[in-house]
Amino acid sequence: MRMKKGIASVLAVVCSLSITATVFAGTGETVPVQSEITEKTEQKDQEKEKQNTEGNTVKKEESTAKPGQKENKEKDKGKTPDKSKTEDKSSEETGKKEEGVPGDSKNDETNTEDIKKNEKTDEEKKKESVKETENEKKLPDSTQPEEKANVPAAKGIAAMPKAVPANVYVPQAKAGNSNTEILTSMTSGLSWAGSGTKDDPKSPIYPNEYYKRTSRNVLVVQAVDSGAKVNDQDQQISLPLSYGTNICEFYVRASDGTTVAYYSMEVYRNKAGQNDWPRDLGVEAPSAPGASDGKILYLKSDVLYDYRIANGEWKSVPAGSTEIPNLASGSYEVRFAETDTQQAGYNVARVYIYEREEYNISVDDGLPDEIKNSIEIPDKAAYGSSVTLKIPFTSRKLVTEVGYKITAGGTFGGTLTGFDYFEGNTYVLVFTMPKNNVHIDEIIVDEAGNWHTITKQDGGVYRFIQMDATVQTPGDMMTKKDVKYFRHGTQAEISLTSYSDPQSYEVTSFEVKDSKGNVVARSADGSKISVTAEDDLTVVPGITVHYADLTELNKLLAQAPTQEELSLYTDDTAKEMADCLALVPNMSDVLVSSQWLVDDFAARVQKALNALVYRDVDYTKLQESLDRIPKDTGDFTEETVNKMNKLAEEARDAIGSKWDIRRQGDVDNLTEALNAAIDGLTMRPADYSKVEAAKKKVPKDLSVYTDDSVKKLRKALDAVVEGLDFTHQEEVDKMAADIETAVKALVKKKAEDPNKKKPVTEPKKDTKSDDKKNTKSPKTKDEAPVLPLTILCAGTGLAALIIRRRRKSKKA
Questions:
Q1: Which of 179, 138, 152, 147 is closest to 34 using CA atoms?
Q2: Which of 711, 651, 716, 656 is nearest to 677 (CA)?
């Protein structure tokens, strides 16, 4: 089960939820204005009664109005006079006495400067608080906020019907009218018709400054016409208030759907007053005259205190303290300190620390041995100091009287009084040491029976539950230091209620356990049960905690960007969204009674979502690419220039479209493509037509030309370099010229004379063959004619070849 966190941390979530400032922990008390259109017959009765009393009431108001208020009163003629101006003087004196000590009459602290610049005394503050309380008492009774269908309501809690304040005339609603009149929780039932515009919202005319002040944590605004809506939400809304001055702005749309009035209200939220004062304090005198080690004792560690020497400056007591040390003798005042939700106490407890003047304390020998042998008390104490007396018993016994005399056997004395309580089975009495010796000679013990405690388990959500116990005989139950004690055998009726927030904390059951942990009684449905006090008992509540409905909020959060995605948005809009996301975990602990916190937070999330603006795309590199484009593109090929120009046009269109960061990838791709097109621009090629024409002049058969001229031609042809651009045109033209020159320089070979005898070359003698022959066999006579014959045959063949060539030459 989730546990309720501190209300201050939860209300901090509402920072800027609406038109007001941050909402801090409040009293939790919400008193909405209730209004509902009444029957025509009731309205007529009201009108008739108003007309009959109009004259008298107006005169009475004028006679009692303060200077400067008469003009306002005349504007309100015909309305029932505001009875909240009557002050209950007796309430100012409430809670001013403690054991004969009067309340504080002055306070040197100043009030909040937002409302009053001048200093005010505690008495003046109390008067303002009384008036404030009376004004707020004029409001209609509070009702529980309506439950959402999927949120369980607190057990036994039903929404009360809206009711019209008795002193307010509410006109009959008509379909489609232009009524924008409102009621608020600050105007004590006085309706107010605003005429402000969006640029100039109007403020009400308050009867006096007290009407601007409240200790409530919300301003309730309700349209008089049941068909009208405040802030386009509902007939009634609640605006959170922070401490100090709040400027609350809102508007009302009439039931005709078109008429709108804008309002502005200045509301000052006070912290609730504290009329109570510290009780059961004790003192300890300094150790010696002139010393400053005296103390104020018995502070509660869970309460905040201030103290001062009489009429001096207030000083804060450190939180968690149970005493105020290092004090010299003198008169001191102690009050409850200011908290997050309450002002500093108006009333004080006065204590006096005397210079150390010690007196003896003794115990009479005639006391019962059980008491005489176990009593714990110091043998001396300083005058005015607190003295603690303890008497341990085997079972819890109540001491009804401790009598003493000034001296043993003396006649003067009395009864020691102070405050008492139990520590287990030990009876404890704390009394103030009189200015004489104390001889305790009588201790009366109630022997009618032992006493047992019945306490509620505390801590966690249990602290929001209150236990009530009743008995048949009042003397069978007593309270010591906020603990209830019951006489042994007493029948007690036990019931539990959620006193601070019944809508959120529902007691569904509880059980009662004895000191050993055994369950002695159980309430299955949380209703009242009866138990017998025969042991110390502990009541353990069974609690169902109802939390606020987060359905609508979760729908909005599903649309929200993640923390990583927030980098896509502008810094200011992303910050508000990030702030909202950081507060989301707090919403899971908001109770159903504070549903408005979740609703207002959801409205803030919706507003943050609507306000999100994507960052602009970064065009820097794309613009740099555009700046690279050559101004003169006539030197480049048409194809590459057209490609570049097309991409450049796309780039300019992209920049003009002002894309957001979601298209950064498209811009980066376009930048890359444009850079590639610029880098790929190709120069116009040189004109090779002359080269081609020169090549066509080269003869197909070069064999008829001399080797030297052909060689020069081939060199010219090989010197041609293809693919040069127009900047090398002269080189290309020279190539063509060189080729033509080489062609013209070709020289044909000369024809040979067929009659011209060519010298016969004797074949080279094959010495190897001869060697081989010689190795085979020696030369004989039969082989000798072979050489001449060979020569003859060769000569004949050569002659035949020459004749053949000559014939071919003649034919040619």
A1: 138
A2: 651
